Amino acid sequence: QNMHGMTSEEIVDLTRRLNYGTWRFQKSWNPVHIADAEDCYIIDGAGKRYLDFSSQLMCVNLGHKNPVVVESIAQQARELPYAMPGYATATRAELSKLLLEVLPEGINKFFFTTSGTEANEAAFKIARMYTGKSKIIARYRSYHGSTSGSIAATGDPRRWAMEPGGKGPGVVFGPEVNCYRCPMKHTYPQCGVACADYIEHMIRNESDVAAVLLEPIVGTNGVLVPPDEYFPKLRKICDENGVLMIADEVMTGWGRTGKWFAVEHWGVTPDILVTAKGITSAYVPLGLCATSEKIGDFFLDHYFAHGHTYEAHPMTLAPAVATIHEMQRLNLVDRAAELAPYVESKLRALKEKHRSIGEVRGKGLFWAVDLVKNRETKEPFNTYTDKVSGAPLLVDQIAGKMFADGVAIQAWVSHFVIAPPLIVTKEELDRGIDALDKHLSLADEKCV
Ligand code: PLP
Q1: Which of 22, 79, 81, 144 qualifies as a cystine partner to 150, CB 3.0-4.6 A?
Q2: Which of 22, 114, 117, 263 to mutate to test the pocket of ligand 1 (most atoms within 8 A of CB)?
Q3: Is the pLDDT of residue 371 over 70?
Q4: What is the pLDDT of residue 289?
Q5: Where is the signal peptide, in residue numbers (predicted)?
């Protein structure tokens, strides 16, 4: 029994009967009751601890139940739980000033939302209002959120459920940057990063393009790190063609890749930076659409036609202030960068050992282990079509075995995402990777 007066069985039963499980068939949903969490661990109703090897949905960057962040929420509730967004609050002023310290220089006007998808919706509207143009160029193998605009701009198959009726107007898809499985069948570096050039070809042939929307490192779809030339080249293309660059840093922000924001790896400043998740370490729902001064200035004498009841909600902003202070105090961005070579060497050794691993790739504490049936053909074990047909996925079977061993990992179609809280220790990294090592034989024996 817990403070809610229910057993784990009752909690799971009520959850299944009265709630929707996301991105899945409902019948097979059998959620584990999570009762507590602490640092790099989640704890089930029976008290069993699981290493949180993907920070839940790649969002609990500080680790669970950081006392400073928890206290900031309680303190804000006592001080001022809510004021409508038209008023000025000390919490918004403090956070906005602090954001100037951590965001790329020149990004200095903020609109707060309560999710990543809403922050993207704001970005699209701002880009369209500012440029007076309508089209957004997004890329295949991307995810930008589940609401109408963001899902329409999502290149991965999660968009399909919305089509044909739900497809938003004004989104066109270009090639993803994916050197392991290049959609143009090119080889880097001989290709000269033609995938960026093709975006320019699209801009010129589409006309009416407001913005190019990109995850700096593609997240859910496999931690796809672009070659170093890609972002500087694309920045130049956007500038030369009068098109805005929107960086979706919902997953890659907040130290995850060893920089505060992933665009910093390539010294590129987007016109609009969208983020969420790690901004509060996910303790409360907060998203941010941050723009350049030039865009901010435009709205001085143009109507800003956007808003939410919960925009800049004080309860969501206070923990962001605390999160930034804690990240600075614990030096977590550098820590993610420093641990990267250790993770990389461990994962490269894992690849040597297991023929089912096609590629390992990543940056900072953000890595993918990509499983293939055959290294020559790079054929994955499963596809998204298997997922939506309800077929059991091999990665889910392996993740299930790891969970039984006390390691929680995110699996997606045919790869794993390793993204532990940035406070993770080397011993915890060893433990998570060892658990994967132990169960990869399930995949190795299915290789052809
Ligand atoms: N953009 C990216 C890159 C994401 O990874 C996600 C969520 O995983 C989103 C947007 C949507 O964020 P949210 O789930 O908070 O709406």
Answers
A1: 144
A2: 117
A3: yes
A4: 99
A5: none
Structure tokens at 204: 């010129």
- Determine if ligand 1 sits within 6 Å of the CB of residue 116: yes
Provide the β-strand partners of residue 248: 274
| C-beta 253 within 6 A of ligand 1 | no
Q: Which residue in 256, 247, 260 sits closest to 366, CA to CA?
A: 256
Statement: residue 165 has pLDDT above 80: no
Per-residue model confidence as pLDDT tens digits over 351-369: 999 999 999 999 999 999 9
Residue 20 has pLDDT above 90, yes or no: yes
Write the pLDDT tens digit of every residue in 172-182.
Answer: 999 999 999 99
Mean pLDDT of 315-324: 98
pLDDT single digits (tens) 211-220: 999 999 999 9
Q: How far is the C-alpha of 61 from the C-alpha of 176, rounded, in Å? A: 26
Asked if 139 and 219 count as a contact pair (C-beta separation under 8 A), the reply is no
Q: Whose CA is nearest to atom 10 of ligand 1?
A: 144
Ligand 1 in contact with 216 (CB < 6 A)? no
- CA–CA separation, 238 and 65 (whole Å): 41
This prediction's pTM: 0.97
Spacing, Cα 103 to ligand 1 middle (Å): 19
CA 425 to chain centre: 22
AA identity, residue 285: P
Q: Whose CA is nearest to atom 13 of ligand 1?
A: 116
From residue 235, alpha-carbon distances to 29, 102, 214, 215 in Å are: 43, 21, 11, 14
CB 414 within 8 A of CB 382: yes
Question: Distance between CA atoms of 149 and 151, rounded to whole angstroms?
Answer: 6
Q: What distance in angstroms lies between residue 146's CA and the mean position of ligand 1's atoms? A: 8
Ligand 1 pocket mutation pick from 61, 112, 151, 250 by most atoms within 8 angstroms of CB:
250
pLDDT at residue 2 in the model: 73
The DSSP secondary structure of 119-172, one letter per residue, reads HHHHHHHHHHHHHS--EEEEESS----SSHHHHHT--SGGGGGGTTTTPPTTEE
Residue ranges and CATH numbers for the domains of the chain are 32-65+331-444 (3.90.1150.10), 67-329 (3.40.640.10)
Tokens of 300: 């001085």
> Average pLDDT, whole number, for the chain?
96
* CA of 120, closest atom in ligand 1: 10
- In this prediction, residue 60 carries a pLDDT of 98
